[in-house]
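Worked example

This section walks through a single chain of length 379. The input is the sequence exactly as stored; nothing has been trimmed or padded.
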Amino acid sequence: MSIYFDHAATTKVLQEAAQSALLAMTEQYGNPSSRHRFGTDASKKLSEDRSKVAAALNCLSEEILFTSGGTEANNWASFIAEKMNHRRGKHIITTQIEHSSVLDPIASFEAKGYEVTRLAPDRNGYISVEQVKEALRPDTIFVSMMLVNNETGTILPIAETAQLLRDAKSPALFHCDAVQAFLKIPFSPKELDVDFLSISAHKIGATKGCGALYVKKGHKISPMILGGGQEHGLRSGTEATAQIAAFATASQIGASSLSTRHEHMTNLKAYALEQLQAEIKQLVVVSSGDAPHVCAISLPGYPSEMLVRDLSDRDIFVSSGSACHKGKPSHVFAALKLPPRVLMGVLRLSFSAENTTQEVDLLCTALKEIVANRIPVKA
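Given that input, the structure is written out below as tokens.
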């Protein structure tokens, strides 16, 4: 039996979502830009799927632009904001714990002469609205902050930051990476009052290669890709109708079951942290996480990559951080300024509504065996 505790990296595709993708590939495979009935039927289906994703996000369908994933959505939002606001100033605010698909575009702006303030988290992974207030300047043109951190599970003060920007009458455009928040915690772009917001399909039980960028109604933005004029002329190229169909179905299912899944994952994570601390005395909780599905622990002195491999040999799958790091040290955990031995042994656990307490018990047993049979090393 395989035990999968890496749902922040990706999720299994729901059967219903897979069926929607299959139908789009084998029966509803018309090009939405074609003018014959097969094409217009595909266009109608695309509009319906857009409406389903928008409904799950509680926004207008015209505010949803489909992308190849969260990375593209984060990149697009960053480049849009810089292009829209570059005449108003040369200062950007973000955090040290953003996804690299936000940090790297902002670093490219810095290379062009922008000044960037990267807010540091506290030991528990939090950024405060007071930090944003201290960093905010009249020439700040862009603020990007994630809602749920993908490695610690902490929730950042998005709505409070939006209120701060309004109160200060700041011209800054505000982007939120909500990839780890979408259908994990309740929120809407309107409640957060952001200009741009990114979500991803494969984090919610749909296929890889699909995501969306929310753009607040009224913003006139520049195209991401030029060509045939798809996505309201903003992202040309034939739409990925199969992936979008799966995304829409998973969004619809996720929205209808959010409260029950939230409760299950919250209780399961609490059980996991309680059992792990009771069974493994040297274990350190790096972050218990605010979101229901993510937490971080450490076995000081036991290299995380070794722990991941040893658990994998037992068919238990966890992460040493974001899958996007590909084995490189996590900049998020490094930003927490953990003691070297604690940083060495960090693991991220991320749950789904399908995980069970029995699986948690097997994880505890496996970690106890590994600790008993491995000699800790010095940092």
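What to look for: The chain is about 40% helix and 15% strand.
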